[in-house]
Write a structure and sequence with these properties.
Layout: E1 22-23, E2 29-32, E3 38-41, E4 49-50, E5 62-63, E6 69-72, E7 78-81, E8 89-90, E9 102-103, E10 109-113, E11 117-121, H1 124-127, E12 133-139, E13 144-148, H2 150-154, H3 158-162, E14 165-170
Antiparallel strand pairs: 1-2, 2-3, 3-4, 5-6, 6-7, 7-8, 9-10, 10-11, 12-13, 12-14
């Protein structure tokens, strides 16, 4: 829609189940599908092109602070793209269901899985610097996540803390 939602036009995708498109910092749109992989648009959604992933279910991609994209899938682990979603590569996690990863303020990435637990990736810059401690917790009943520092964790009540399966990340 170009008139605040009053009228709508068809794009070149007229069927299928798609996750909410994500707008990247350069205006590119990236949308993942329930069965048709990941597509991208450089003209505000009028036309969509296939990426190199043309099948499978992927969660909405996340744009990282360096412009790279990451996306979790329902069976193929976590993929990443360094060219605005045109091509995607395997990370070292190539199987399992993963939600969209989260980038922490220090650049650490955290991803949760319904079957594989919690994974994290430290940014290259922090691997040689001071120790950074973060806490990540997954609430088993609600698929919600606590991500924060020691101080933020300590600010929770003991009842709130007991609701999460916690992993301390220190690197």
């Amino acid at each position: 829609s170009t008139d605040k939602g009053v009228t709508w036009q068809d794009s070149n995708i007229t069927s299928g189940y798609y996750i909410v498109p994500v707008e990247l910092s350069d205006g590119t749109l990236v949308a993942s599908s329930g069965s048709e992989g990941i597509k991208y648009s450089t003209d505000k959604g009028v036309t969509w092109q296939n990426s190199n992933i043309t099948s499978g279910y992927y969660n909405a991609p996340v744009e990282l602070s360096d412009g790279a994209l990451v996306a979790g899938s329902n069976s193929s682990g976590i993929k990443y793209s360094t060219d605005k979603g045109v091509t995607w590569q395997d990370s070292n996690i190539t199987s399992g269901y993963y939600d969209a990863p989260v980038e922490l303020s220090d650049g650490t990435l955290v991803a949760s899985s319904s079957s594989e637990g919690i994974k994290y990736a430290l940014p290259e810059a922090t691997q040689q610097q001071e120790v950074v401690t973060s806490y990540v917790g997954v609430h088993p009943g609600y698929r919600t996540m606590f991500i924060g520092t020691q101080a933020e964790w300590d600010a929770l009540t003991s009842d709130e803390q007991n609701e999460y399966d916690i992993a301390e990340i220190t690197d």
